[in-house]
Amino acid sequence: MAGLTLVELMVAGGIGSFVLTGVLSVVLMMGRSGVSAANYADMEAQSRRAVDEFAQDVRMASDLTWNSSSSVTLTVPDNYAAYGNKVTYALDSAATGPTAASFYRLPGIAGALNPRLALARNVTSLTFTRFTRTNTVAADDFSAKRLQLTMNLRTTAQTTVDQNTLVVSASYVLRNKPSN
User: Which of 22, 61, 66, 155 has the lowest CB atom count within 10 Å?
Assistant: First the structure.
């Protein structure tokens, strides 16, 4: 009767352990890669939607009010009937709340208590830059003819490293704003 010796069993067990460790490593790496890819796709979708919403209102705007480098109010056609013809885009840097750490749109002026719509979440920084007709940085609202948005989004997950994406929009022309 032929059998396996203890040495043969130990060698087979060792080889099996190495193979199993390799297979588990590949499975874990593929899972982490999938989570990272899903996070990037989510950030890209949010940023694309946010920039599209922002661009639509900027192109229709007839005036611009600079609240800060992270908040602007646009005068648009009366699209927000219940709130007038103003819409504010800003960063909510608060740590808690429904729009915490998000780029949001607020029908009305900056201090209005109207409901905010979060366009992109997990925003770590956001700045607006206004330009004149001659592509120089505008010093005031009167000379501003174009507006650009720059924001950084970040996601975190327990099993993967943090992911960042930097979004720099085109500089959108305020088509309906009179030239100076």
Answer: 22
